[in-house]
Specification:
mainly alpha, 0% strand, binds protoporphyrin IX containing FE
């Protein structure tokens, strides 16, 4: 039997609720014939505005519910499912509240911030649904610490083999063991460093392997022995490159999951401030 996820929870309970709310708003909007221009200032406009503002305050309370570990006000997963669908319904509610009138003013700022919060939420949800399994797959069931230890093991084995090799290869292996996960902190968000010493050591060993290839004439006993050592080192460095690549991707995905909330939450507070200013200006200039 397939398990419920945040989107399918309770047989799409919150999707249905949200669709019902959206449908009711659309029907009311098109059935309404106000004596003044449709917008936030009609009775329906006030109703939609109040609904949107209440929803926004409720959506903000999700942060509190997430941290209220002993709360018996429903499960966090249930709250998140409702958060996602009712959050998305705000696109329609806010657009109908504004009656498609936009300009360069505080009202439109509140509207744009609403959309930004909603879209950042959708981006986060996409990650929330996909990233954890991807992250687990990258480390093949190991923890991050265990994966880093595996790199250290490869380095110890490489150091042992390289002791009898030319200085250039020794230096490459030494640099490879010291290569950073990323060239600079911000790179963690976007991906692969350009200056990877492990990739360079793999390239160097690949070129050395071709020198010792049987077709290159190095088929003497010493040639074969040297070739075997380089092959062994090459295999170790290749393993290091793959393992390092996986750790980098894991750290990159982890940074992405942490960063989107750094966008979603501050945008939420900016929205709250803009919403306050919008409501204040509406009643102040009444
Ligand atoms: C105006 C609308 C919204 C507001 C005000 C809002 C606000 C918030 C707040 C305050 C949190 C808690 C953050 C924390 O303290 O950790 C949160 C989390 C979250 N929101 Fe929203 N949100 C909105 C819309 C959405 C939408 C439309 C989606 C998805 C389509 C969404 C997805 C999420 C997710 C996935 C989390 C994090 C869950 C977790 O960390 O477990 N949000 N949101």
């Amino acid at each position: 039997m397939q398990q419920d996820n945040v989107l399918t929870l309770g047989g799409y309970r919150y999707l249905k609720l949200s669709l019902l709310v959206v449908l009711a708003c659309i029907i009311l909007y098109y059935a309404d014939t106000p004596p003044i221009r449709p917008g936030g200032g009609t009775w329906l406009g006030y109703g939609l505005g109040t609904l949107g503002a209440v929803l926004i305050v409720w959506l903000m309370m999700f942060g509190l519910r997430k941290r209220a570990y002993h709360s018996n006000m429903g499960t966090v997963r249930g709250w998140l499912s409702a958060h996602v669908y009712l959050g998305l319904s705000l696109i329609v509610i806010a657009t109908l509240h504004a009656a498609f009138h936009f300009g360069i003013n505080i009202h439109t700022l509140a509207y744009v911030l609403t959309l930004l919060v909603v879209f950042s939420g959708a981006w986060g949800l996409f990650g929330y649904m996909n990233i954890p399994s991807k992250m687990n797959g990258l480390l093949r069931g190991k923890t991050l610490e265990q994966s880093v230890e595996a790199l250290t093991d490869i380095d110890t084995q490489s150091q042992r083999i390289v002791s009898s090799m030319p200085a250039e290869i020794k230096a490459a292996i030494e640099a490879s063991s010291k290569t950073h996960f990323f060239d600079y902190p911000g790179q963690r968000l976007f991906g692969k460093p350009k200056n990877c010493a492990t990739a360079k050591s793999v390239a160097l060993l690949t070129s050395r392997l071709s020198v010792f290839a049987p077709s290159a004439g190095a088929s003497s006993e010493t040639g074969n022995a040297a070739r075997k050592v380089i092959q062994e080192l090459h295999a170790l460095q290749l393993r290091r490159q793959v393992q390092l690549g996986n750790i980098r991707e894991y750290l990159c995905l982890k940074a992405q999951t942490e960063t989107w909330l750094m966008l979603h939450v501050p945008l939420t507070f900016a929205l709250f401030a803009a919403l306050g200013a919008h409501i204040f200006s509406v009643f102040f200039y009444w």
